Amino acid sequence: MTNLFSPIQVGAMALANRIVMAPLTRNRAPDATPNELMKTYYEQRASAGLIITEATAISHQGQGYADVPGLYGEAQVAGWKLVTDAVHAAGGKIVVQLWHVGRVSHAELQPHFAAPVAPSAIRAKTKTVLIKDGAAVFVETSEPRALDVTELPGIVHDYVLAARHAMHAGFDGVEIHAANGYLLDQFMKTGSNHRTDDYGGGIKNRARLLLEVMRAVVDEIGGDRTSIRLSPVTPANDVIDEDPQTLFDYVVHHLAAMDLAYVHVIEGSTGADRVLPDRPFDYASFKAVYRAGGGKGAWMVNNGYDAAMAASAVPADADLVAFGRPFIANPDLVARIATGAAWHTLDRKTLYGGGAAGYIDYPTL
Ligand code: 8OZ
């Protein structure tokens, strides 16, 4: 019988189970560089079938929050190698989530204190995090500038370089972060993309940058090490599309031809309601479009799953289930699901920034 604890081959990766640690921003990488503390945190969670790292900037321009890691410099590759070696030694698998925040940034976090970049010069009604005198403070994002069309090949290239760095750093693969209102999602959705060139207007144009990035990364490291995260209807970071079903059916139809390792879908509002009455979305038909197009990647679902929901989703509706906040407070979440043990709750005060407290000191069974 196939269940959450059945091994599964996902692209190039042989996973021990179907329980995945979702990407979780923790703001503990000063100088955008992974460190010993992060190594311990990920090592503690290596019993997950797969770990997806916290979102990791592909370039300095792609950074939007204080103390999040990057993957564009030598020290960052070396820092991540500490992490991947530790996870592999503990028997786990780990992919890095590649991230460009687009307009969700602040000039203080950008090269030369420049304006953040976006498809269009429309400010996001959302906040980001700076560190002031050692403490996290929430600030409005800065007014962005619209990217010139001549800059887009450079951004695609930054994803390719980061994917190449990921291989040097020992990752099993990469997940392209195309969710939660960041750059690729900003390009896809009507609320944030008012361009009139080949990258704006109809769905084909709005999805162009995402598909160019995906094809370029697949060419660089192979489809079996490449995956994607999508969030069709989340209002996260103030990015909304007027017709998400048509948009995402188009996107997933084209992803189907790429032989990806997996497709990771956030159902509903990220970290909140799974069903949005004013924004219906048919996830079953979305998945069916992917399969009908020949897509053979694993189907990963996420957002507020508990053990019972996950057990009933696999294998009929999904191949993999990603758990976010439960993995912060329960490094041994897999063992807890297996034995039916209770789950610790998260301490929200230590979620973003800080040190070991609320990071590597959650108890195991
Ligand atoms: C929480 C805080 C900062 C960033 C996402 C990368 O929502 C994030 C994120 C989440 O995908």
Q: What does this protein look like?
A:
The protein is of the alpha/beta class and 365 residues long. It has a single domain (8-350), classed as Aldolase class I (TIM Barrel, Alpha-Beta Barrel). The protein is built from 11 helices and 14 strands. The protein has helices spanning 36-44, 74-89, 152-168, 183-188, 203-206, 208-221, 244-255, 283-292, 307-313, 325-329, 333-339; strands spanning 8-10, 13-15, 19-21, 50-57, 94-99, 117-118, 127-132, 135-140, 145-146, 173-177, 226-230, 262-266, 298-302, 320-323. It has an 8-stranded parallel β-barrel. It has a two-stranded antiparallel sheet with strand order 1-2. It has a two-stranded parallel ribbon with strand order 6-9. Helix 3 (152-168) packs parallel to helix 6 (208-221) and helix 7 (244-255) runs parallel beside helix 8 (283-292). The longest helix has 17 residues, at 152-168. The chain is globular, with a radius of gyration of 19 Å. It starts with 7 loop residues before the first strand and ends in a 26-residue tail after the last helix. The model has no long low-confidence stretch (mean pLDDT 97).
Topology:
Blueprint: E1 8-10, E2 13-15, E3 19-21, H1 36-44, E4 50-57, H2 74-89, E5 94-99, E6 117-118, E7 127-132, E8 135-140, E9 145-146, H3 152-168, E10 173-177, H4 183-188, H5 203-206, H6 208-221, E11 226-230, H7 244-255, E12 262-266, H8 283-292, E13 298-302, H9 307-313, E14 320-323, H10 325-329, H11 333-339
Helix pairs in contact: 1-2, 3-6, 7-8
The protein binds 2-Phenylacrylic acid.
2-Phenylacrylic acid is lined by residues 25, 55, 65, 180, 236, 270.
